[in-house]
Amino acid sequence: MKLITAIIREDMLDQVREALIQAEITRITVSRVSGHGRQVEERIHRGEKIVPDLIPKVRLEIAVNDSFVDITCNAILESAGKNGNGESYIGSGKIFVTPLEECIRIRTKERGSAAI
Fold it and tell me: What is the pLDDT of residues 15-70, one digit of tens each?
């Protein structure tokens, strides 16, 4: 089991959700977050460094069985990585894949892969 966490631009959420649904990944958690990465450079205004503004983003969390890791990551990569012209650009986001030690469904008390 793995936990896939993706940080994407807000305007890509609908495209990513549609791609995940087409890939038969229907259980996701979405949170509004803010941050910055390489797309923000330090600015100097009147001799003082200005702290970069935080940029609104969306965080997706998806728990999957091992066989769905590549399918899920590819769906996110294909849908969030490019603009309407098919060009990729800085600020598209990141995907993190981490081991998921345990998953428990509260309603049925199922554990492990069956709970996902």
Answer: 999 999 999 999 999 999 988 776 656 667 677 777 677 889 999 999 999 999 99
Please report, as a single letter, which amino acid is at residue 99.
P
Helix (H) or strand (E) holding 34: strand 29-35
- Element of type H or E holding 48: strand 48-50
DSSP one-letter string for 64-95: E-GGGHHHHHHHHHHHHS--TTS---TT-EEE
Average pLDDT, the chain: 88
Instruction: Look up the CATH number of domain 2-115.
Output: 3.30.70.120
11, 92 in Cβ contact below 8 A? no
